[in-house]
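Hi C.,

You asked whether I'd gotten around to modeling the 318-residue construct. I have! Everything is below, sequence then structure, no commentary in between.
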Amino acid sequence: MVSRRDFGKMTVAGIPLLGAWSEASAVRVGVDTYSFRDLLRTPGQDNIDDVIQALKSAGVREVELSSTNTEPAGPNSGPAVPPPPSAYPPPITAPTPEQVTAAKLAVRNSLRRWRLATPATHHEAVRGEFQAAGISLFAYRLDYDEQFTDQEIDVTFNQAKSLGVQVLASLCNLQVARRLAPFAERYGMTVALHNSANETDPNAIASPQSFRTVLALSKNFRLNLDIGNFTAANYEAVAFIQENHAVISHIQIKDRTRNGGANEKFGEGDTPIKDVLNLINGKKLPIPVFVEYEYLGLGTPQEEVRKCMAYVKTAVAS
């Protein structure tokens, strides 16, 4: 067995890739690995091996890879192990708001140190593991916020380069997007802005007007259109895609209800998933779509992703 470290030293360009999943259609369908966020994690370690196994079990051949999978998990924040039974249990003292803030800051600073100290071979090795598994990396997903330093942003673009992707997807706001523009142009990389449903925030990327504003910031900017969030913000996904498909790098498939509603099982919300897929298929638009399992399912993440993929497959065939 070849270790991940050895993968980082190998030339992986020659490893053949399987094509993205599609069946008798023009639609490229993959999965956002954020869909596997509920897999058990070991603090301080990534979970690439578990994610690859989950993807293989669901028959996935192309992914938007979430940075949370390539980076070490934070400390366990779940409930503490209960103390042994006692007639006089110790008092439970809740942490103060200041202690909670300090703990979150410590975790954030630790992640920044990891990013700055981790060599490119780590992400090169991750790339090799996906290639060996026959899974193509389309985009690297990393959600930027105001806490990122310029040095940290630069490092994350290098990470995407080491993964061999040309698209870096991010759910961020307009202010942060302005900071990303020079990095996108310096690296010659597409930054695909993932829309939210928060129309009440003037700094959010959520409305068609905000899309026009952010796309004007850089020739390297595109939209990663989340049709679930777009629907929750009360916009029409089909009409928007028809008119603006040239600026869309890829589409996130999930189902939400209107008026800022919740995530639902595919087919039970208001999002026109079938219509969007049929539009892409009928017009042969070169826009890959990525399933994002985000509703509260009763099965394992692997089982729920398989259900989502089956729904998409049936929708395209219908």
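If it helps when you're writing up: Residues 1-24 have pLDDT under 50 and may be disordered.

Thanks,
B.
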